[in-house]
Backbone:
DNA sequence: CTTCTTTCTAAACGTATGTTTTAAACGATA
DNA sequence: TATCGTTTAAAACATACGTTTAGAAAGAAG
C-alpha cells in the first residue's frame, strides 16, 4: 500500500520552493501558473494535480512554514520569560520585541534554505485581498496576542489599546524592512550598506524599544 | 483651435479616479482594464486612448498628485524651520517627523476628494516591480533627503547612516498604517477603534520620535 | 453647411490565463 | 508478469486579458 512517491515529493517540493520565491517577488495575480511550472521543471498540470488550484498552491506555500516561525517566536518568548523568572524580575520590553523580530529578520538573511523567500512571501501576502488571506493575518495576530500580557506587566500604565497600536507600529517596521531591505542602499544613496542580520535586528529592536 | 473636451476631461478624470481606488485595493496585475473602464462607465478602449497603455494609466494615477503631497510635506518643513529660526532654536525631531507624517495620514482620512485612495495607491505602488516603478520610489526619497540635514543638526551624534535607517523605519510605520488602518480593529480584537486623523498621527509621531 | 479635430463606440485581434481531460509512464505489490 | 494506485505528459478548453482598428458621433472653426 505504501508507494515511494520519491519523484512526486520532489516535484511537489520543487513547486513550493519555486512559487515561494516567485510569490515573494510579485503579486499573486502577476505570477502565472506557467511561470511556476516551467521554473520548477514540472508539467503545467502539476499545480492543479497537487494543490487543486493556483490559490491552493498559494495557501500551501503559506502553510508549509507557518507554524515554524511562530514556534520560534514563542520559543524566544518562553526563554526570556524563564530567564526573567530566574532572576526574579519581569520580562523587559527589549526581550519581548527581540523575540518578535529576531525570527523573521534572521530568516530574511537565510537565503540558503529558502527562508528568506518565505518571509518575503509572507510580508507580501499581507497585502493580498483580505478576503482570500485572512488566515495569514490571523495566525500572526494570535502569536502577538500572547505578548500583550507581558507588555502590560512591564508597563502597567499602558492601556491594551496603546499596546496594540505599538505592536502595529512594530509590525510596520518589520514588514517594511522585509520588503525593502535590498533597497535601503538606494534610499540612503549608499550611506547604508549591507549589514549582518544581528546589526539589522539590533537597529530595529532599538528603534522599537524607544517607541514603546 | 481650442476644443472644449468637456466630456473627454470628465471621462479621463473619471478613469483616474476609479483606477486610483482600484489600484489602491489590488495589485497592478489583479486590476484589469475592463474592470476599470466598466467601473468608470467608459468604453474599453478609453484607457489606451487616453493613457496609451495600462502601465501608462498606472503612472498617470501616480503623477496626478505626486507633487502635491511632497509640496505639503516641504511646506510643513519650511513652516517649522521658520518658526524655529524665529525662536532662535533648531527644529525639533517632533516637528520634522510631524512634517513627514501629517500629509499622508491626513490624506488617508480624506475619503471625499479621493486622497485616501491615492495614498493607499502610493503605498501599494512601493511593492510593485521595482523596475517599473522606480520613479515612485525616487520621488519620495528626494523629499526625505531634504530632512536629513535637520536631523543631523538636532542630533549631531548620529551618523548619516543612522539617520537613514531611522527614516526607513518611519516609512515602515507610515506604510503599514496606510495599508492596514482598517484592519487594526481586527488585530486588536476591537481594543483599537477608529480614531481621528490627529489621534492616529500623534500616535505615530510619538512612537517615531522616541525611536529616533 | 462644410471641414476638421477630437472623442466615443463596437468589434475584433492575438495572446495569455487557469483549469480539465486523456492517456501514457512509473513503481510497488501480489 | 499482471495489477493497481500514483505520477507525469501533452493537448485542448473556455475564458480573460491588453491592445488595435475602423468608423460613428460630437463639436468647434471656417
Residues:
Amino acid at each position: 500500500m505504501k508507494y515511494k512517491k520519491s519523484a512526486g515529493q520532489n516535484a511537489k517540493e520543487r513547486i513550493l520552493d519555486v512559487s515561494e520565491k516567485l510569490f515573494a517577488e510579485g503579486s499573486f495575480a502577476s505570477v502565472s501558473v506557467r511561470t511556476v511550472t516551467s521554473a520548477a521543471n514540472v508539467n503545467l498540470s502539476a499545480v492543479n494535480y497537487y494543490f487543486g488550484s493556483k490559490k491552493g498552491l498559494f495557501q500551501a506555500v503559506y502553510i508549509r512554514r507557518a507554524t515554524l516561525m511562530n514556534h520560534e517566536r514563542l520559543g524566544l518568548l518562553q526563554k526570556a520569560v524563564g530567564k526573567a523568572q530566574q532572576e526574579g524580575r519581569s520580562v523587559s520590553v527589549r526581550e519581548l520585541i527581540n523575540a518578535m523580530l529576531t525570527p523573521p529578520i534572521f530568516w530574511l538573511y537565510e537565503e540558503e534554505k529558502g527562508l528568506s523567500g518565505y518571509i518575503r512571501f509572507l510580508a507580501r501576502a499581507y497585502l493580498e485581498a483580505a478576503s482570500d488571506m485572512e488566515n495569514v493575518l490571523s495566525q500572526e495576530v494570535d502569536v502577538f496576542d500572547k505578548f500583550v500580557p507581558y507588555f502590560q506587566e512591564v508597563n502597567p500604565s499602558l492601556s491594551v489599546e496603546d499596546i496594540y497600536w505599538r505592536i502595529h507600529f512594530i509590525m510596520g517596521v518589520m514588514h517594511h524592512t522585509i520588503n525593502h531591505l535590498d533597497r535601503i542602499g538606494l534610499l540612503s544613496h549608499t550611506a547604508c550598506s549591507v549589514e549582518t542580520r544581528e546589526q539589522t535586528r539590533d537597529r530595529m529592536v532599538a528603534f522599537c524599544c524607544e517607541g514603546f
Observations:
- Chain A has one domain: 62-211.
- Chain A is about 75% helix and 0% strand.
- Chain A touches chain B through 50 residues (CB under 8 Å).
